[in-house]
Design goal:
Elements lengths: L9 H8 L4 E8 L8 E9 H5 L15 H14 L2 E7 L1 H7 L1 H28 L28 E6 L14 H4 L10 E4 L7 H24 L5 H4 L5 H10 L23
Parallel strand pairs: 1-4, 4-5
Antiparallel strand pairs: 1-2, 2-3
Helix pairs in contact: 3-7, 4-5
């Protein structure tokens, strides 16, 4: 039976009553996988518009939806949200800076992509003067520096889970990996335990993240058919671990993870 979609916008309405103008739902996918990126989905909503209408059908925690339902739902999210995007950190980046900082980097990349999408949409509607930096105007929508991107109005981030990895203090060893993403000034963050299954804005982010990462892993499976990524999308199934044991890890595996029960598996990178 398909999961019923979420309908309760009480969390978002509370933010509006507190004086916030926008909410960004955030969720990650791929944290526990052995291979592939760790990805973060973000979905921006104008709270006045969001709370004045019903939630589209089928918006729920991505894990509760079938692949077909997720694909249908991601199309609805793209039409429903003010902007939505996905950012990722590669396995090599994860191995270098650790999971918390890899999630942080993926989240920053997602935010910049989301702001660029939002800016482009406003430019299309209003001309070159349509994009505003926190309501002050004057941002260059074609600029690449993270410091050039500012969030609209009063924005609150709702992050799925207990731990705030998005605004975690950056460590010195991550600065070279992050590049310009270091300069992005994030809005305040509130964590929501099991938010992907209760808060529509977070569920929207979980859907776009899951669909995007699954598509990446299915595409990678064509070049690396021995690990079963077309079905396990990088998680540690029996077939996946057997492939690692027999052939060794690929360049898309996370070398800082315990990939097999026998850590002496082949050392070559496929």
């Amino acid at each position: 039976m398909a999961a019923r979609g979420l309908t309760d916008l009480s969390v978002e309405r509370e933010l509006l009553s507190e004086g916030f103008d926008y909410v960004i739902g955030v969720d990650e996918v791929g944290r526990g996988a052995l291979a592939g990126p760790v990805s973060v989905g973000v979905a921006l909503f104008d709270l006045r518009i969001l709370t004045a209408a019903e939630v589209p059908a089928g918006i729920h925690d991505s894990k509760q939806l079938s692949a077909q339902s997720r694909q249908e739902a991601t199309d609805r999210v793209r039409s429903w949200a003010t902007a939505a995007a996905v950012g990722s950190s590669t396995p090599a980046e994860l191995d270098e800076v650790g999971m918390t900082m890899a999630l942080n980097l993926a989240g920053r990349r997602a935010m910049i992509s989301m702001l660029r999408e939002w800016a482009d949409a406003r430019t299309d509607r209003h001309g070159s003067g349509g994009f505003e930096r926190n309501g002050s105007g004057g941002a260059d929508v074609n600029g690449t520096a993270a410091s050039a991107w500012e969030f609209p109005g009063r924005t609150m981030v709702l992050l799925d889970g207990r731990h705030d990895w998005l605004s975690a203090p950056l460590t010195l060893d991550c600065l070279g990996t992050f590049g310009d993403c270091v300069d992005l000034e994030l809005p305040p963050v509130r964590t929501v335990i099991k938010g992907d299954g209760s808060v529509p804005a977070i569920a929207a982010a979980s859907i776009v993240a899951k669909v995007a990462r699954d598509e990446t892993m299915i595409a990678l499976a064509e070049a690396h058919p021995h690990y079963g990524w077309e079905s396990n999308v990088g998680y540690g199934t029996v077939k996946h671990r057997q492939g690692i044991t027999e052939l060794g890890p690929s360049i898309h595996h996370r070398r800082s993870f315990r990939l097999t029960a026998d850590s002496g598996a082949k050392e070559g990178l496929l």
